[in-house]
Amino acid sequence: GADEKDMVFVTVTCLEPVKGNRILLEAMSELLGKVPAARLFIVGDGRERRVLEAQADRLGISSRVVFTGFQKSFVDYLIAADIFVLPSLNEGMGWSVLEAMVCEKPVVACRVGGIPDLVEDGIQGLLVPPGSAGELARALEHLALEPELRRRMAKSAWSRASQKFN
Questions:
Q1: In this structure, are residues 32 and 24 in contact, taking their beta carbons and an 8 Å threshold?
Q2: pLDDT digit string (tens) for 78-93?
Q3: DSSP H helix total and E strand total for the chain
Q4: Alpha carbon distance 68, 44 (integer Å)
Q5: I need a labelling partner for 37 at 20 to 30 A (CA). Which of 5, 7, 47, 163 fits?
Q6: pLDDT digits (tens, 9 = 90+) for 54-87
Q7: Where are the alpha helices (H) located in the chain, listed in sequence order?
Q8: Alpha-carbon span 38 to 53, nearest angstrom
Q9: How far is CA 115 from CA 23, 57, 64, 139, 155, in A?
């Protein structure tokens, strides 16, 4: 559903409160003022889906957010992404982050759980404090507006994932 002019952000997650998707939608609302081509694909499902869809409507961003529902294979979404984002408030290993890195995508994620073991802040992506829509929006904006930085981080993400987490 995206076109080549869109700046595509993808998250692969359960739609549960601990995953921080409400914060991601707030960040997206802020981001669209500075990156109008931003388009967010939320890959996954869960008990919070209707709440999140209503929030996107309330924020006036539902035309820029796609809820894909559960996808048995989500690799096409990762391949289409310009930036992978994971706004979790708490996270174990962060497998979707690792999968995005294998697909050579820069990552913006919250500094929780095992995420800092996967992503070195400023090298494979940007890490932000959990629960801060403003910090998340600024990190997404920074990467969206810096194509060379995205490219370097993407290459570093693939290299780190393939070498350290083979």
A1: no
A2: 999 999 999 999 998 8
A3: 7, 6
A4: 7
A5: 47
A6: 999 999 999 999 999 898 889 999 999 999 999 9
A7: 21-32, 49-59, 75-80, 95-102, 115-118, 133-144, 147-164
A8: 17
A9: 17, 30, 27, 16, 18
